[in-house]
Amino acid sequence: MSGPEGYSTFVPKPLPPSPPLKISPAMQVLLDRANQALGRLDGVTLLLPDPDQFLYTYIRKEAVLSSQIEGTQSSLSDLLLFENDGSPGVPQADALETFNYIEAMNHGLRRIESGELPLSLRLLREVHQRLLEDTRGADKDPGNFRTTQNWIGGTRPSNARFVPPAPHEVQGAMSDLESFLHADPMETPILIKAALAHAQFETIHPFLDGNGRVARLLITLLLCTQGVLSRPLLYLSLYLKRNRDVYYERLQGVRTEGAWEEWLEFFLEGVIDVAASATATTKSIVQMVERDRQKLHGLGRGSSTALRIHDYVIRYVVVSVPRTSRALGLSEPTVANGVRRLEAQAVLREVTGRERNRLYVYDEYLKLLNEGTTEPAS
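^ that's the sequence the OP posted. Answer follows.
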């Protein structure tokens, strides 16, 4: 469709693709491997004494990576310090955008799990509103589909790399996508559905800002809604960040050549890669936690307090004495003494260098989670 300045907008056909996807024997093998990798990832949570402890920080890693793809500079350490009223050196605006990603994800999962809302256009608008609240995108009409033209690359639509549908086409295209998510006109295997829906959302680009982050959240929400994962543990942002040029090429190939099979292959390889990595990381964390608990059991008198603090640190990674004291119902001197014991065992490390308002980090745990979050964004 042509625009007034000599540019053309792209209106995608409704899903599933037409002509239909060609699932070759090699692609079927890839799909089977991806499903098996997801199964192993979901099963590994059974090793965790408290999966929610792990999930708290793992979601934060995904928030950091997804935001970094969009250009923020906030690291996982920055985010955790920000949440603990941390350090003056933390980029506050970037950390807030990353924090909002967590809020948006949790909001979407709560609404689905409580039965209040299905995965729908209304829910995606709510997620978008939470994502942009009080950030640099707050003036980009959070929670509403765009009413003006946007574009990708270039300085204006006429020299852009890609121009999504015109504003009046957005609602119809998104309604078609919503139907596809709910098996209309036909049921689609979940990983194929997630791959197609992500690409379609990115192509429609229904919001003025935050499209990439919502499109990545859509994958997580779909997998949890369909019961493929009992907890939101699969995040493709690290894979997409490391392969960003190929990621954009594959999306563009879908638009210009209908190259859905190439996109699907890239997506499934990402699922296999990320699921295997997350499974290995989870096993390493289980081993680390158990080893450190054995150290603390050997402390004799005072070990019970040290173990309670350790349980708290597993969940939050960065802690302070006052906050830990309030959370555990222990006096500050008791917590301070326990923290010193964890420092002596090289479990915790003080990171501020201050005399007051000190913060302590579970150093090895943070290193395990930090993979990829401190690498250059491109």
